[in-house]
Model the fold of this input.
Amino acid sequence: MKYLTLILWILAVIPTYAQSESEVKTALFQMRSAMLDEDESTLRELTSEHLTYGHSSGVIETQEQFLAVFASGKTDYQNWDIYDLEITFPKGDLALIRHKVKADIQSNGNTNHLELGLLMVWVKEKGQWRLLARQAFRLPQPTT
Done:
């Protein structure tokens, strides 16, 4: 009987985990598209009002500061390629995403190529996954 209960529990949990992983991954790629399209409205929907958004330079932004970057048009995200994606769920309504990004960003007339590592914390608020925290760091450059 114990084994039957365990098997039923596992069968119930696995689809929920897979669905949550799919939902979080979808939200991540919606955010990527919204950043490339400078879609402030979608970015607002995908971020928590408690957002803390850390850049690799050390600058930390609130949700309003993060959104103001896209409203101003001063920064143009031209490319944002995500790879080495890992998603974990320490709790049911909390997701951690680690991934790497190759990005081309135009700012003040200059195009910068960045290779970053990111840690993102997503939380389910009002039935929707929203970005709560993000910290980027520069990846070490290969030595030649």
Summary: The first helix runs from residue 2 to 37. The chain has one domain: 2-138. The beta strands are 47-54, 60-61, 75-91, 94-107, 110-125, 128-138. Residues 8-17 have pLDDT under 50 and may be disordered.
